[in-house]
């Protein structure tokens, strides 16, 4: 079972950038799996932000297209989410998972808080 740790969140002004990281804390071979980035705000369902498969193919949710880029580093067994031109609406807790459909993952980590505010 994947135990993933997210990091890199913080407070940033509108138009700013952040780079989130996702790493396996228990030696889980993340390289062999998809990596989905999700975000959630209180009272709303978890939303898929991006997905990268084990071959490096990517897809993005509507809100992320053109502003966010997901990637992975197989040497580090890690994945990343580069977020540029951030907007207030991007404020949320961001999570990563070894799937791209939240219905099929149940070992969510703490996530990392992203706050976009002036």
What labels describe this entry?
four-stranded antiparallel β-sheet, globular, 118 residues, six-stranded mixed β-sheet, mainly beta
Overview of the molecule:
A hairpin with a 5-residue loop joins strand 5 (47-52) and strand 6 (58-60). The protein is mostly beta strands. Helix content is 0%, strand content 44%. It starts with a strand and ends with a strand. The mean pLDDT is 95. It has a 6-stranded mixed beta sheet, with no helix packed on it. A 4-stranded antiparallel beta sheet has the order 1-3-8-7, with no helix packed on it. The chain is globular and about 40 Å long. It contains no helices and 10 strands. It has strands at residues 4-7, 10-12, 18-24, 35-40, 47-52, 58-60, 68-73, 78-83, 92-97, 112-116.
Radius of gyration: 13 Å
Strand order across the largest sheet? 2-10-9-4-5-6
Taken from the alpha-carbon principal axes, the silhouette is globular
Number of strands: 10
| Strand-pairing-aware structural class | mainly beta
Distance between the termini: 39 Å
List the uncertain runs: none
Name the average pLDDT: 95
Given the structure, what is the number of helices? 0
H and E order: EEEEEEEEEE
- What percent of residues are in strands? 35-45%
Largest sheet data? 6 strands, mixed
The percentage helix is under 10%
């Amino acid at each position: 079972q994947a135990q993933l740790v997210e990091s890199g969140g913080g407070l940033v002004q509108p138009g700013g950038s952040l780079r989130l990281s996702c790493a396996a804390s228990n030696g889980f071979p993340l390289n062999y799996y998809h990596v989905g980035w999700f975000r959630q705000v209180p009272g709303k369902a978890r939303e898929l932000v991006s997905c990268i498969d084990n071959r490096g193919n990517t897809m993005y949710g509507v809100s992320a297209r053109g502003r966010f880029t997901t990637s992975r580093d197989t040497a580090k067994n890690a994945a990343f989410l580069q977020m540029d031109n951030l907007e207030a609406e991007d404020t949320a807790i961001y999570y990563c998972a070894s799937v791209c459909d939240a219905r099929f993952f149940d070992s969510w980590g703490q996530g990392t808080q992203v706050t976009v505010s002036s």
